[in-house]
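Components:
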Amino acid sequence: MTVLHAPSLTGLVADVVPFSWVDGPGNRYTVFLQGCNLNCLACHNPHTIPRLTRRARTVTVRELVDDVARLAPFLAGVTTSGGEATQQPEFVAAFFAALGEQPATAALTRFIDSNGMTDDATWDLLLPVTDGVMLDVKAVDPERHRRLTGSTNERVLASLDRLHAAGRLAQLRLLVVPGFNDSPDELRRTGAYLTAHAPGVPVQLTGFRPHGVRSTARRIPEPTGAQRQAYAALVAESVPAELLTVV
Amino acid sequence: MEHADFRSRARLLVDSGALTYRQRVKALADLAEEALDPPKVSAACAAALESGLIDDLVEGHAPYRPRYLLPDYGKALAQGSDFLQLGPPTDLHEAIAFLLSMYSQVPSITGYPVYLGDVDVLLEPFAAEHDDAELRRLLRLLWVTIDRMLPDAFTHANLGPTDSRVGRALLGLEQELVQTVPNLTLRVDADVTPDALLLDAVRTVFACGKPHFVNHAMMTRDLGADYGVVSCYNSLLVGGGAHTLVRLNLAESARRHGGDVDTFLATTLPAHVALTAELMAARIRSLVEQARFFEHSWLVDEGLASLDRMSAMFGVFGLAECVDGLTGAVTQQDRYGHSAAANALALRIVERLAELVAATPLPYCEGNGGYAFLHSQAGMDYDSGVTAGARIPIGTEPPLHQHLFAVAPNHTHFPSGISDILHFDETAVCNPQAVVDVVRGALAIGMRDVTFNLDSNDFVRITGYLVRKSDLVSLERCGVARHGSDVLAAGSVARSHVTQRRVKRVVSAERSAARP
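Structure:
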């Protein structure tokens, strides 16, 4: 695929975090790409949603790879996040391929943090150069998903199956938002769905936090530690405890 | 000191309600030493000392023991000791009793041993006959006794680089006991030290701010295989040590300079290095020739320490203010830690210092071929407005990756120790592997020592040594502290900005001789 060898290809980047400890295993270089195809109520980085914004900058694959190479001795890997990384698939694929080719960065693992709202063609492009995907599952119920994100979730669930079949599903992420997807019934069904469709995959349950969210979401209450544990207990009726982390 | 002055100060110490019995005895001994005349130096050297250009770290007027002594505990365990009247230990109980007995007889500047040995290497041969629970129970007694018997956070034990049951048990105990004593270093060899051991050590940092991680390959290159890390983070030869540590205030050196950078490096700095070395030489001669320490120490008699393994430490501090003073930087982006040009100048100064120290012979320093070891000195409780060692000023540190790249090139030039304290937030706790990655990376790019502080725990690293925040509060309220180092740290907190510090680092202020 010619697209993979494109050091001059540019991506639209919202920000780069050279050392991130919350975007996958170990110390990771995380690239937040600008633009998302969902419009989540609880988004922590709402400024990364629009594609057109003066806050984003254009970066070439070569620039990014050089920066990663400089920091490589400290890194376990690289994560592309967003926004939504799969909205710029050619750039991500070229970036990951170039990391694999460059000796200084070849040992780094390459992860994508994704909302899963994409299609098979995009995964066809990305998976050959990707070690793992951390997939956000906002809700398994389509209507709840629409209330939270503006879209229903058929493509997310298809991505989940595709990624699991390919052995690339590194983690499933559940953001529990009080009043939207925290009913016991929903949490039980979510746990059962994940266990049925992606057995053995680690699940991270995150309680909603108002930090960084848009003003309309700030009135949503932040679940307490006890509430988060109660959510986890419901999910754990299906998901084995050793696979479940709560943050 | 006038006799009347001596009497009134002795009376104050005797009557003070703020000292334990042991601290009182130490303070009285320091007072007696101060009543003697200091080693003779030239008028220029005396003026430099008096005005704060150079500083003997309150070591005392009449050196009668080396500042840092690193006995060869391995040899002692193997051969037994006539002085201690103990034969070679045959099991773990005897080995622990042997070490504790020996610790009580090891001198240093603090009055306590600053070095406890490679405790895992020393005890692992005795561990096989005990299961994990019994091993931990016995090591717990050792560790608790060290803290209660040697209440000084400059007392320092070493672990690694190889994984061991004893090392793992001690890390587990550190997490459980959360003691400030002993200070702890894990030697890390990229090829030998497994991730599992590093992960355990990182979790220990989360619990209690220890250990330091040191670059074993760099240390063995500079000091040989038999080295130890003592006191704050001072690396020296086992079976030897450092007679003295005198430090040059680089900030003050730059302030006194009236020209450009080239003339600073060509004239002012060499002159100030010579003044520092003069004081060191006088102090070393006093210890070796007048007090004749090496002629009447049981450690020397039994071959556990020797003069030919000794050297001295040439300390520097205030590199940041020196660089910014010479460049006239006024905005943050031009300062050390932020500007590539400033960082390059810092390295140039450090390289010049290394060159000068390596060309200045000192007596009785055969441990380093007749020269001192350069050391990045961590600061003292009485420092104000001058940054420790070669560190970036507190509160102005750049992001972690920039910080590491800014300071790393300097590390290779400080064989007897340099430390930059990295202060992490709580996200590290959920991802200890990330901290392991940072440690491995820091050592790979040439850092000698990596030291962490975690914002959320009760411990605060004042220099290279630890105190509990809660002990500082209690000292403020009650006026008595069991650990001598707490008293020093309280001075640091009062004079600097410990409580105003930005995430990532804490202040430092090494001080050896506790004084009221």
